[in-house]
Automatic annotation (TrEMBL), chain A:
It holds the Pfam family TPP_enzyme_C. GO terms for molecular function: acetolactate synthase activity; flavin adenine dinucleotide binding; magnesium ion binding; thiamine pyrophosphate binding. Its EC number is 2.2.1.6. One of its GO terms (cellular component) is acetolactate synthase complex. This is Acetolactate synthase. Residues 18-132 form the Thiamine pyrophosphate enzyme N-terminal TPP-binding domain.
Automatic annotation (TrEMBL), chain B:
GO terms for molecular function: acetolactate synthase activity; acetolactate synthase regulator activity. Pathway: Amino-acid biosynthesis; L-isoleucine biosynthesis; L-isoleucine from 2-oxobutanoate: step 1/4; Amino-acid biosynthesis; L-valine biosynthesis; L-valine from pyruvate: step 1/4. Residues 4-79 form the ACT domain. One of its GO terms (biological process) is isoleucine biosynthetic process. This is Acetolactate synthase small subunit. GO terms for cellular component: cytosol. Keywords: Amino-acid biosynthesis, Branched-chain amino acid biosynthesis, Transferase. Belongs to the acetolactate synthase small subunit family. It comes from Metabacillus litoralis. Its EC number is 2.2.1.6. PROSITE patterns: ACT. Pfam families: ACT_AHAS_ss (PF22629), ALS_ss_C (PF10369).
Length: 574, 171
């Protein structure tokens, strides 16, 4: 009897008892989560009930896919984890594309899915899906909560895992009963993950090896990827590059990590990269990859990639080193910390003056080009104009395809964290919801969602969110009435057999936009003063949708066909 | 070439699924996989036998395994001094007339008969996979009805000899 009394009094000291769903809210508050993207449903009703008067900022997207892409856009711009809630079954499976996208582009997300009650898991209950099994290969880690008492620890671990090392999505599956059960809440436990010890400090000997290689190199080049942006290492990159006078090419996802107007910038590398960047990667004698993972869209045929070069690979993820390209100088570490070390070493500069002159020449001689037209709008021209009127300072989001490549080629990013695109997975429907997340992360910047007419129609329902929150996003549809990149490949590699790549019927995007309450305009070359119309829309402070009718058979050039080496570019000159 | 990878993992639900999923996702080939509790509570030891074309591949496998949150340690123990064992149960046709002959055949392998029926016996054998292969070959002419093998389980010996090329030992 007396023992009982003692027990009671000791528990009475910390009466932080609450339901699983309240624990979740409390944990999100402790993690300083600013916004949740979500969609309610049966299995998460307890969580949404707790959300009701929690004071948390929740955005109701019109589809779970929209929610998770918005969270990705938020994460990309804010650097903080994007938080998503979806219900069990279809709610959870609708997240699959976004999870895969975030996984391959290393974006930190913490995703909560509802699950049917513990007692019926495995019985094929209503809205049950094995989301743990489904998402194991497409998350950095995932959990199913078995005891309500584990919930705070799991959430804490999830935020830690999502944001440290190589960032990525973490999913927590919460059975409905766990959200209702009560337990003790505390959030000050240390994170204890013996199997997870990411290494961000580079090895000194490897740094020295690189410093020596640089001093010997006559044709060095840096390939800078998104890892530079994740590590906030842009300033250090510029400093290092200026110290050593090494030219820089960016990957698609790395754009903005090095200023496009810098004299040592070679442009984007890869399938639709610049001649100068690709020839530099082909010819170099020292390749320094920083936070890039040698995707096949960057390297082209590996047989010809940087074959004459010593390869130094700097990456936070040791598994990326040597995965695709043999590496002589492996450096595991955070890009910023590695660059800081390199700057500190202040190594002897290599004799690469001639190389730099040659590259500068190439830049002059082989710039990106397109044929302007008197009768049709050229998408490249539209992007140049958008760049002009936003002073190159806007946040640009895209889907995947021709418009994405034109945006990458012609927007000329000069600042970091302004570019949100689906690189690794190439997800249509990404750009519009990602713009919502990006605008919520940065209220000051102009956000331009550059979309194709195909991708726009995959997630256009999120226009509703733009209107609801009155986000001044500029939705720019480069409308060519087709799946442009598919059409381009069919033209070049399938004997112009345009199998199901042209839209026979399109809705009236202007009326559609107006139905959602968003101002809209159609722009065609034949319009009197179309340029003014475009300028007015891009510089207005309201949400706007522009349906821009562009040349229907414009192709993206230059191009390295898949299976070819970077030196086998076509369409370099007109 | 065959490589033996030993890993210690947290004993969480779904760990085996994560490991095997990783192999199929990355197009690696698992030859056998064994799992059981290790010396520490909450920790399991897994032994993976994989078939790889080149060195680079096994490096990628160990790196990817290391990335798993529940994986504590990964070691490619192929080139170490190791003890490795597999257990096999072999049901082989046997009439009273051939029973003694079988007995004599399996004895040098330190295998034993653990079940007898009118037409068959069940032979239990432990050892390295090569030894088991040899015994199976010897028993084949009698008519094998069923085989159940556990796959290799292994760890490093208490004392490591200086690096040797390929470990060969049949016992």
């Amino acid at each position: 009897m007396s023992t009982n009394v003692q027990l009671n009094s000791s528990t009475a000291k910390c009466t932080n008892t609450m339901s699983g769903s309240l624990m979740l809210i409390e944990a999100l508050k402790q993690e300083k989560v600013e916004v949740i993207f979500g969609y309610p449903g049966g299995a998460v009703l307890p969580i949404y009930d707790s959300l009701y008067d929690s004071g948390m900022n929740h955005v109701l997207t019109r589809h779970e896919q929209g929610g998770i892409h918005a969270a990705e856009g938020y994460a990309r711009i804010s650097g903080k984890p994007g938080v998503v809630i979806a219900t069990s079954g279809p709610g959870a499976t609708n997240l699959v594309t976004g999870l895969t996208d975030a996984m391959i582009d290393s974006l930190p997300l913490v995703v909560f899915t509802g699950q049917v009650a513990s007692s019926v898991i495995g019985s094929d209950a209503f809205q049950e899906a094995d989301i743990l099994g489904i998402t194991t290969p497409i998350t950095k880690h995932n959990y199913q909560v078995r005891e309500v008492s584990e919930l705070p620890r799991i959430i804490k671990e999830a935020f830690h895992i999502a944001t440290t090392g190589r960032p990525g999505p973490v999913l927590i599956d919460i059975p409905k009963d766990i959200a209702i059960f009560e337990g003790e809440f505390s959030y000050d436990m240390p994170v204890n993950l013996p199997g997870y010890q990411p290494n961000s400090e580079p090895n000194y000997l490897q740094i020295r090896k690189l410093v020596e290689a640089v001093s010997r190199a006559k044709k060095p080049v840096i390939l800078a990827g998104a890892g530079v942006l994740h590590a906030n290492g842009s300033e250090e990159l510029i400093k290092y590059v200026e110290q050593q006078q090494i030219p820089v090419a960016n990957t698609l996802l790395g754009l903005g990590g090095f200023p496009a107007d810098h004299s040592l910038f070679l442009g984007m590398a890869g399938m639709h990269g610049t001649y100068t960047a690709n020839m530099a990667l082909y010819d170099c004698d020292l390749l320094i990859s920083i936070g890039a993972r040698f995707d096949d869209r960057v390297t082209g045929n590996l047989e010809h990639f940087a074959k004459k070069a010593t390869v130094a690979h700097i990456d936070i993820d040791p598994a990326e080193i040597g995965k695709n390209v043999p590496t002589q100088i492996p450096i595991v570490g955070d890009a910023k910390l590695v660059l800081e070390q390199l700057i500190k070493q202040d190594g002897k500069q290599g004799d690469n003056k001639e190389w730099n002159e040659q590259l500068a020449n190439n830049k002059q001689e082989y710039p990106l080009v397109y044929n302007d037209s008197d009768t049709e709008l050229k998408p490249q021209n539209i992007l140049e104009l958008i760049h002009k009127w936003t002073k190159g300072e806007a946040i640009v989001t895209t889907d995947v395809g021709q418009h994405q490549m034109w945006a990458a080629q012609y927007y000329n990013f000069k600042n970091p964290n302004k570019w949100v695109t689906s690189g690794g997975l190439g997800t249509m429907g990404f750009g519009l919801p990602a713009a919502i997340g990006a605008q919520l992360a940065d209220r000051e910047s102009t956000v331009v969602a550059v979309l194709g007419d195909g991708g726009f129609q995959m997630t256009l329902q999120e226009l509703s969110v733009i209107h609801e929150l009155n986000l001044p996003i500029k939705v720019v549809i480069l409308n060519n009435g087709a799946l442009g990149m598919v059409r381009q490949w069919q033209e070049l590699f399938y004997e112009e057999r345009y199998s199901h790549s042209k839209f026979v019927s399109q809705p009236d995007f202007v009326k559609l936009s107006e139905a959602y309450g968003i101002k809209s305009a159609r722009i065609e070359k034949s319009d009197e003063g179309w340029e003014e119309k475009l300028k007015e829309a891009i510089t207005s402070d309201e949400p706007v949708l522009l349906d821009i009718h562009v040349c229907k058979n414009e192709n993206v050039y230059p191009m390295v066909a898949s299976g070819k080496g970077l030196h086998e570019m076509v369409g370099v000159k007109l | 070439m065959k490589r033996i990878i030993s890993l210690t993992v947290l004993n969480q639900t779904g760990v085996l699924n994560r490991i095997t999923g990783l192999f199929s996702k990355r197009h690696f080939n698992i030859e056998s996989i064994t799992v059981g509790h290790a010396e520490t509570e909450g920790v399991s030891r897994m032994t993976l036998v994989v078939n790889v074309q080149e060195e680079k591949e096994v490096e990628q496998i160990t790196k990817q395994l290391n990335k798993q949150i529940d994986v504590i340690k990964v070691t490619d123990i192929t080139a170490h001094s190791i003890v490795s064992r597999e257990l096999a149960l072999i049901k082989v046709m046997s009439t009273p007339a051939t029973r003694m002959e079988l007995q004599g055949l399996i004895q040098p392998f330190r295998a034993s008969v653990i079940d007898v029926s009118r037409e068959s016996v069940v032979v239990q054998v432990t050892g390295e996979p090569e030894k088991i292969e040899v015994l199976i070959d010897l028993l084949k002419p009698y008519g094998i009805k069923e085989i159940a093998r556990t796959g290799t389980t292994a760890f490093t010996r208490g004392t490591q000899r200086s690096v040797k090329e390929v470990p060969i030992s049949i016992v």
